[in-house]
Amino acid sequence: MVKARRPGAGAARRTAQWGATGVLAGTGLVGLLLFALGREHAWQALGGGLVVVGASVVLGGGLGFLFGVPRVRGGGTGEPQGSYAPNTNLEQVSDWLTKVLLGVGLTQLGSLGERLHDLGTALAPVLGGGEAAVPFAAALVLYFLIFGFLAGWLVTRLALPQALTETDQALDLFLAGQDRDRHGDKVGADDLRVRAMQQLGLLGGTTERPAALVGQLPPSSGSPAGPEGVVAEVRSTARRSALTADQVRALFADGSEGRRIQALALMQGDPALADLSSVLDAIEHPRSGFEQYHALLAARGLLSRLPAAGAQRLRDAVARQLVDPRGIPYGSDRSWLAEKILSRLPAAAVLPEQQSAAGVPAQPDAGGNS
Fold first, then answer.
1. pTM higher than 0.85
2. Neighbours of 97 (CB within 10 A)
3. At what angle do helices 112-123 and 133-182 cross, to 10 degrees?
4. Rounded CA gap, 54 and 52, in Å?
5. 25-50 burial, b if ≥16 CB within 10 A, otherwise e?
6. SS3 letters for 120-151?
7. Percentage above 70 pLDDT, the chain
8. What is the pLDDT of residues 25-43, one digit of tens each?
9. By mean pLDDT, which of 111-115, 134-138, 150-154, 188-192 is the weakest?
10. What is the DSSP string of 241-271?
11. What is the spatial distance between Cα 296 and Cα 169, in angstroms, rounded to a whole number?
């Protein structure tokens, strides 16, 4: 039986880790300070000791990094053709150097005391010279070398796998977006690109995700968990849906946030179902950032279908939200989409002022989605 983790346990553990690190580093530095104060040239001894400390920490951290480089788990033979595999050169170099260092260290283990004495003798003048400086210099190097090794190993072991995993996931999302783009799904491609940039921390996310969407689809739909999965599933089935533009408009006008987002997802999947007035309402008066994000995605799919007046209305609505302090946050997923929409509006094909009952022309222009 798996025990539930107590709230705040992670923060308490991190606090304890940083506290232990501070105590270890502080102990060594206080020892150096006390030793330097007893020397004839205290500041010179302190400065030289700090340089020795820094060099030892860097060397130990580098060794800890080599020992802590994570291994890439071997995948099965069912990887799709043309997929990217992670480069394992660093892992191989780490493996080779680790074995070499261990081998050399074991062969020289018997002369370790003599080597430390020689090291202390060489560094003693930096700490002011004298018989007392020899063992202190050797102990200072050994102390901070081990400290740097442990710190480098722990940071590499804990942080590097997560960073590599997030980067690989972002690459997978980006490649999936490129594949969607080649198949003409511009909206789905931009959605995946946004998620890839969020994975890398380049864009801020839309935090409000309505729980009302979860459970809107039957369990057998196979959509990923969460509101994003529901929206993606609805978008993918839009062209096979028997709903009409009027019904989608009525679904949006229902008033509940879950139904409004479902209607926007249908508009994303099939622009023929889109209603410009509904999209503009969700952009200018969103119930949440999540709804506004998907309204912008729906607007992205309409760029090649809008008449001149509709394009101007969309341009004005998006521009107002960008400059409004309470509108679209700068550096967010919504700002990226909004700026992309504005950059493409002037180049969008302008159709005659003929709109269907849904608020946009019934057929796209020859250029398709821009």
1. no
2. 15
3. 100
4. 5
5. beebeeebeebbeebeeeeebbebbe
6. HHHHHHHHCCCCCHHHHHHHHHHHHHHHHHHH
7. 76
8. 899 999 999 998 988 888 9
9. 111-115
10. ----HHHHHHHHTT--HHHHHHHHHHHHH-G
11. 24
To 10 degrees, what angle do helices 42-68 and 89-107 make? 120
Backbone angles phi, psi at 274, to 5 degrees: -80, 150
Structure tokens at 337: 């989409």
**8 Å CB contact between 273 and 362:** no
What is the secondary structure of 29-45 as a DSSP string?
HHHHHHHHHTSSSHHHH
CB contact at 8 A, 213 and 227: yes
Residue 358, token pair as written in the block: 């849904």
Please list, residue by residue across 129-152, b when 16 or more beta carbons sit within 10 angstroms of its beta carbon and e when fewer do: eeeebbebbbebbbbbbebbbebb
What CA–CA distance (Å, rounded) separates 317 from 281?
A: 9
CB 49 within 8 A of CB 36: yes
The residue-averaged pLDDT of 236-244 equals 84
Q: Which of 105, 132, 107, 111 is nearest to 121 (CA)?
A: 132
CB 202 within 8 A of CB 228: no
What single DSSP character describes residue 328? S
User: Which phi-psi region, left, alpha or beta, contains residue 350 (left: φ > 0; alpha: ψ -120 to 50)?
Assistant: beta
Going from the C-alpha of 339 to that of each of 307, 326, 327, the distances in angstroms are 20, 17, 13
DSSP code at position 272: G
Residue type at 112 in one-letter notation: L
Asked whether the beta carbons of 308 and 346 are under 8 A apart, the reply is no
